[in-house]
Write a structure and sequence with these properties.
Blueprint (H helix, E strand, L loop, with lengths): L22 H6 L9 E6 L21 H8 L2 E4 L9 H10 L5 E4 L3 H4 L10 H9 L9 E4 L9 H10 L6 E4 L11 H10 L3 E6 L15 E7 L5 H20 L3 E7 L6 H15 L17 H4 L4
Parallel strand pairs: 1-2, 1-8, 2-3, 4-5, 5-6, 6-7, 7-8
């Protein structure tokens, strides 16, 4: 992920900001139930031949990558849907080749998110939603990544889109234009998302600390964590995130999606594995699972089975 990347991070303050001011009120309105919070940890794709032998069993073929991926991770930031709407056969294949507890988080196609109309008045939204509905119970939280030029002045249009998007499909919205993070723009966005029971994406990246807005609008939170090649600050940041997610879970957040990004996606499994272990120790009440990686030459890399 190139958005917000910096060549030099030595002067970056990576500390997490305080929660958005309205979080406590929004979270207090969530329905109370006794279910344990769920944490989903995943990467941005499964087609990584470089993972064979460490993330995937030695000798894994490309056709089996999704199966191998879902045995290690319980979700994916599904970027392929940003470029094309998958057909029913593809959706069925994904469904059949993933584990029962797996959740797909499809990105809304750019023909919708990057169009002037946001797909309103066309058949793009129902076509996309009909397609991904084929994932059935494995459909997690979709996300709408708005382009950098989509400013806060277009909140009324975004609200129209949110009202047109099927209520039964979870959706998180990612905004990037600087105007959203200047007062008084953020709070109206969070209020609108809360009213319509939609989530907002939180991005933790070195070069754009404003998008780390720490707003939570409903019982589902989505975090995109952009690391810097397993720099020591990546681990310190992960520890801070464990504490914040623990706080949110105690306040009523029931579902969290956490997507580690690392350069070229190569080291994302290592960060995911570290984060999983930190969560298992720091938030024992949360339900989750994470990858168990093997080093080159480790017999575990050969003993792992896809069946």
């Amino acid at each position: 992920m190139k958005f917000g990347k910096l060549p030099d991070i030595s002067d970056v303050d990576f500390s997490l900001p305080a929660d958005a001011p309205g979080n406590a009120q929004r979270l207090s309105a969530l329905p109370v139930n006794g279910a344990a919070p769920q944490l989903y940890i995943g990467c941005t794709g499964w087609s990584m031949k470089e993972w064979v032998g460490s993330v995937y069993p030695k000798g894994t073929k490309a056709k089996d990558y999704l199966k191998a991926y879902s045995l290690q991770f319980n979700t994916i930031e599904l970027n392929t849907t940003h470029y094309r709407i998958p057909n029913a056969q593809t959706i069925d294949k994904w469904y059949r080749e993933s584990t029962a507890d797996f959740r797909f988080c499809p990105k809304v196609p750019q023909t919708i998110s990057h169009s002037k109309s946001l797909g309103l008045g066309t058949d793009l939204i129902p076509t996309f939603c009909t397609a991904i509905a084929g994932l059935k119970e494995k459909l997690g939280c979709c996300f709408l990544q708005l382009p950098p030029y989509f400013g806060a002045d277009r909140l009324p249009q975004l609200e129209q889109f949110l009202q047109a998007f099927p209520a039964e499909i979870q959706l998180a919205v990612e905004v990037r234009h600087e105007s959203w993070f200047k007062e008084p723009s953020l709070e109206p966005l969070l209020t609108t998302l809360h009213r319509l029971q939609r989530s907002i994406v939180i991005t933790d990246v070195a070069g754009r600390r404003d998008v780390l807005h720490m707003g939570v609008t409903n019982a589902t939170a989505m975090v995109r964590f952009v690391g810097n090649g397993l720099h020591p600050t990546d681990y310190a940041r992960a520890a801070d995130w464990v504490e914040r997610l623990k706080q949110w879970a105690q306040q009523g957040v029931k579902e969290i999606y956490f997507f580690p990004h690392e350069p070229d996606n190569l080291l994302a499994p290592e960060m995911a594995a570290h984060f999983y272990e930190a969560v298992a120790e720091g938030i024992p009440a949360i339900q989750t699972r994470g990858p168990e990686l093997s080093e080159p030459g480790d017999p575990k890399g050969e003993q792992m089975s896809l069946f």
